[in-house]
Amino acid sequence: MSEKSRLGLPLWLLWSLVTVVLWGTWGLVSKIASDGVDAYMNQLLFTAGIAPLLVFVGWKVSRGGPGEKRAGRGRGVFWAFLTGILGGVGNMAYFEAMVKGGKASVVTPVTALFPMVTVVLALVFLKERLGRVQWVGLGLAFVAIYLLNA
Amino acid sequence: MAWLGYAILALVLWGVTGVTQKLSTNRISSERSFLWFCWAMVALSGVVVVVARPHWGLGTLVVACSVAGGALNGLGAWTSFKALESGGKASIVISLISLFPLLTVVLAVALLHERLTWMQAAGAVVAIAAAILLSLEPAPAKAEAQSAGV
Predict the structure, then answer these.
(1) HSE (CB half, 13 Å, CA atoms) of A136?
(2) What is the 8-class DSSP label of residue B98?
(3) Residue A16: which of B125, B82, B106 has the closest Cα?
């Protein structure tokens, strides 16, 4: 049985709902900021916002985690760093879409379709297979892009 | 429709991070991976300062929103890990979290007075459904074969 929060909700549900609120609000504040900040300046300020978390996670990592292997750590760090670079440039593109007049209520659902690229890449490069549900999702993603731009 | 090109660029880049993140967390802990993700953001910001020469002298509200964007995004990533660590099934947690654009749509319409055509509103709903379906991992082949009575 999963652990419960003080509110009586399972902890995983509470953390999931908090995530929805945090990321959902991120879309809103990005649109407000896009009224007066360019994508480059936003990247700097965005990083300033993430800095306290960097310190906290850095402190946790320095204390050492359970059972992390040393073998392959360099490669793991390389992929994590590349993820940050691609994610950061992606953030800049997301922000620029709003600077160029894209509505938060349209840009955010479009960019939230990014798993369609991940599943195709995983299919081609990681030799993963797609379930029927994911194929349906992929088809719906194209329908969504058409509708959002109609 | 210049915004669409940037939104699709963000979608593609974030889609690639789905693969690079997996390649990273196959080798190191999610916390170490997140730490190096943050360092990459810092490095990218360094490049932005040197190459792009961002414009300074901004209003308090837009600066606060940009910084808040980074904090909300980073905290959201952290709470999503916490949801998975707290015993939530990945398929349920990821599906639930994929609903975050819905909140952005609601907030943008309510607070920023954005107006959607019915096609765009339908597109937003289909996009969120697609993101949920795409995020569902296919069942392992063995389990699928058993359930099919093979």
Answers:
(1) 11
(2) T
(3) B82
Q: Which of B17-21, B61-65, B95-99 has the highest mean pLDDT?
A: B61-65
Prediction pTM value: 0.84
Alpha-carbon span B76 to A42, nearest angstrom: 18
Chain-centroid distance of CA B110 in Å reads 22
At residue A66, the pLDDT reads 59
What is the ipTM score, two decimals? 0.86
- Chain B from 58 to 87: CB within 8 A of any A CB: 58-59, 61-63, 65-76, 78-80, 82-84, 86-87
Residues 6+ apart with CB under 8 A from B1: A149
DSSP A14-68: HHHHHHHHHHHHHHHHHHHHTTT--HHHHHHHHHHHHHHHHHHHHHHHHT--TT-
Q: For the packed helices B2-25 and A73-99, what is the interaxial angle rounded to 10 degrees?
A: 160
CB contact under 8 A, A44 and B48: yes
**CB-CB contact of A82 with B20 (8 Å):** yes
The helix or strand, by DSSP H or E, that contains position B123, with its residue range, turns out to be helix B118-135
Per-residue confidence (pLDDT) for residue B144, from 0 to 100:
44
**Which segments in chain A show pLDDT lower than 50?**
none
Distances (CA, A) of B83 to A62, B34, B113: 22, 15, 32
* pLDDT confidence of residue A28: 94
- Which of A1, A82, A135 to probe the B interface (max B CBs under 10 A)? A82
